[in-house]
Write a structure and sequence with these properties.
InterPro entries: HATC_C_dom
Domain HAT C-terminal dimerisation: 71-139
Distance between the termini: 62 Å
Number of helices: 7
Helix content: 55-70%
Strand content: under 5%
Pfam families: Dimer_Tnp_hAT
Order of helices and strands: HHHHHHH
GO molecular function, one term: protein dimerization activity
Protein name: HAT C-terminal dimerisation domain-containing protein
Shape: elongated
């Protein structure tokens, strides 16, 4: 499967509901998808979403775009679009699961490379905490460091007092 086959599910793409592109994607999930029914539903979905898009243009509401918006539009029509709905659900979860895994491996490589020069052995707990901090940089930067130091100092008694 090429990643470009996901474009067949984006109503802003020129490949939207293209039968050959969807067939390429469906080959991976053919045990779960009725391909004959899918072919019949693809044309109906394209017409349905095109009409919905026209109605939205008339209402001047263009907040709903993309795969998730399309999924939500016919999510209530499960009987009419059962096979297409299955594929939309699969497509909606693919980028998230793939991107998060790639992000964590990328961060792991950076953390281990940086720490390899500082320290060669590290416990799993410390590595996990450093990875979370590296992935969630925006959250970490929003924390008040003075409060963190105070909380750390109060955790357990130390030989040298951290607080006065």
């Amino acid at each position: 499967m090429r990643i470009s086959s996901i474009q067949a599910f984006d109503d802003n793409s020129p490949m939207f509901m293209d039968a050959s592109t969807i067939a390429e994607f469906t080959n991976l999930y053919e045990s779960h998808i009725d391909t004959t029914l899918l072919q019949a539903q693809c044309h109906s979905v394209k017409v349905f979403l095109t009409m919905e898009k026209e109605d939205e243009r008339n209402d001047d509401d263009d907040d709903d775009n993309g795969i998730l918006a399309s999924l939500s539009k016919f999510n209530t029509l499960t009987m009419a679009f059962s096979e297409v709905l299955k594929l939309f659900r699969i497509v909606a979860t693919l980028p998230v699961s793939t991107a998060s895994n790639e992000c964590f491996f990328s961060v792991l490589k950076r953390v281990k490379t940086y720490l390899g020069t500082v320290r060669t052995t590290m416990g799993d707990v410390r590595l996990t905490h450093l990875m979370l901090m590296a992935v969630e940089q925006k959250l970490v930067k929003s924390l008040n460091m003075d409060d963190l130091v105070d909380d750390f100092a109060k955790m357990k008694p130390r030989r040298y007092p951290l607080l006065d």
